[in-house]
Amino acid sequence: MTAVTFRQPRVLLSFALPAAVLWYMVAHAEGIADYAFVLGAAGLSLLLHALQLAARRNARSQAADEHQLFQAMFMQAAIGMALTDSDGRWIRANPALSKMLGYREDELAGRLFSEFTHPDDRDDNVRRVNALREGPHNVEQYEKRYIGRDGREIWALVTISQVTQWQSDRRCLVAQIQDVTTRKRAEQALRQSEERWRTLLANSQEMVMLVDHECLLAYASPSVQRWLGYAPDELIGTVLGLTGHPHDDLVLASHPEDEAALARAFDDVWSQAAEPNQSVSISHRVKHKDGSWRFLESTVVSLRDDPAVKAVLIASRDVTEHVTLEQERERLELERRVSLRLEAVGQLAAGIAHEINTPLQFVGDSVTFLNEAVDELLTLTNLYHVLLHTDEAIDKDERQRRMSAAEEEADLEYLCERIPSAFSRTVDGIARVTSIVQAMKRFSHPASSQTTPADLNESIKTTLAVCRNEYKYVADIELELDELPEVVCNIGELNQVFLNLIINAAQAIQEKFAATDQRGTIRITTRLDGSEAVFEIADDGPGIPFELQDRIYEPFFTTKELGKGSGQGLALARATIEQHSGSLECKSAPSEGTTFTVRLPLKPPSAEMAQAA
What confidence tier does 613 reach under pLDDT thresholds 50, 70, 90? Predict the structure, then answer.
């Protein structure tokens, strides 16, 4: 029994307690300072021992709690965790790591981590672990590959820490292993995508460039060097002349004639009112590094709202060869047209010569007669002058006799009757020749690509005058020309179309009635149909067989005998009409003749656009 004094507020109790009760109080004391012990030597020793036992019990309880907390954290962690001894063997692995690798926890315990490491990463893994053990740092982080139970590669971000076990000097490693396979695959896919696009851009025929808002080139694909002579490194950071904006130090300078259009294109895509990804397409010329001009077709796209780009994308294609070939094609086409026109002129030459020769012949005959008549009249005039002013004594009857004899010899009555008609024939002949020459002049309108308003009714009359000799012996012409407004066209080319159709009609009629005295009819009508002028040239010739009607527009295809046609007339006629945004149609049946219908817009779209510009 030990005497204890227990102090409560305002109360002091002093009584004797059994030793067992004292032990219980010490073991469960929450505030020993609240107790005042009045003990002897034996009691004091007993109290100190009790306090030590209580401290140890509290420590064991705290350690048990911490152990349970670590155990819960280890086992329930979302990422893989492992405890590894100094030999590299896994002491313990948590469920997350087991699930990651596909093994049970007991299958991992006691096995070297290198057994599950990708062969290519083992040496680096061992080097890092050794460096952690020997170096000044207690933490190492790196990426490595594991091999799962099913043989697949598993990328992981590994963080290892070196720790010392409690109550021992034994060191071990704690590893946190996070599965980053999905991220690595995404990174690999991104790298492959970047490499694929880099390869595509390097081998693409198109040039790709990025230009910032200051017109500085931010990127140029390798194909720029192939087509324009500049290495990409030479262009990065330079002012791009493609934008059409003037600057003292330009590369890829634009042709002066294209600068305004390019500037408008860039202003449009940079405008605040521009839609996202708005694009503008434009054809233009750019100066090559060697000083030559290259033709490009470019698409300018606004990517200013893309946070990764914030620039204008230019995708350009070099079309110099195509443009050169097109220019050559146009040159050859022009030569072909000129050749066909010369062929038509050659074909018409004999007829035109005959048409001119006939009036010139009776003009010549009339002039010859007038020349002789003038001589006779001058003889009479001289006789009158002599008889009027002679000093010879001649009576009135003698004078009249001499004058009457001279008039009868000159046949004055005949001269007075024929001279006016001779002058009339001369004037008519000269007028006929003049009309033929003027028709030829109008028909031979200089070849040009320019379109102007023209009177196509007058064009048909002119063409008929020029080719009159082709039809006058075989066909009669019926004209029904309604009043038409002027049509915007290339009148020289349309004259050639009308000539081809009229000559074809005359030749078809000649073929049909060659063995007879019959004459055919060529009926030409014009009318206005809405916004189109319509021309119909119909003949009553033999018609075109149905099986050949699909081929009549083929170049060099002809049904005429050798020497009467090159097979280019209808092909050229159709091409010409289509260039005027019109149409050429054929309606024919064997033995019923052929009708060609030409439709032309009063104002072709190209003319309207030119007027709007």
Answer: very low
> Strand pairing of 207-211 and 171-179?
unpaired
N-term to C-term CA, the chain: 123
Alpha helices in 390-467 (DSSP H): 396-410, 412-443, 456-466
Cα–Cα distances in Å, from 150 out to 99, 119, 154, 178? 12, 16, 11, 19
- Beta bridge partners of residue 540, listed in sequence order: none
The SS3 call for residue 525 is strand
| Long-range CB pairs of 558-566, under 8 A, 24+ apart, other chains included | 560/507, 564/507, 565/507, 566/340, 566/343
Q: Are 145 and 120 in contact (CB under 8 A)?
A: yes
Tokens of 470: 């082709």
Structure tokens at 153: 């590669």
Token reading at 165: 């076990």
Whether 156 contacts 146, CB under 8 Å? yes
Task: Pick the more confident residue, 25 or 171.
Answer: 171
Give the C-alpha separation, 501 to 492, whole Å: 15
Distance of alpha carbon 298 from alpha carbon 316, whole angstroms: 4
Per-residue pLDDT reduced to its tens digit, 19-41: 444 444 444 444 444 444 444 45
Confirm if 487 and 602 have CB atoms less than 8 A apart. Answer: yes
Triad 587, 592, 594: Cα angle to 5°: 35
Bridge-based pairing state of the strands 139-147 and 153-164: antiparallel
Q: Provide the strand spans (E) within 19-89.
A: 80-84
Residue reference for tokens 């300072």: 33
**How many percent of the chain have pLDDT more than 90?**
16
Gyration radius (Cα) of the chain, Å: 57
Residue type, 291: G
Place of tokens 């007027």: 611
Nearest to 216 by CA among 312, 350, 147, 85: 312
* pTM, full prediction: 0.45
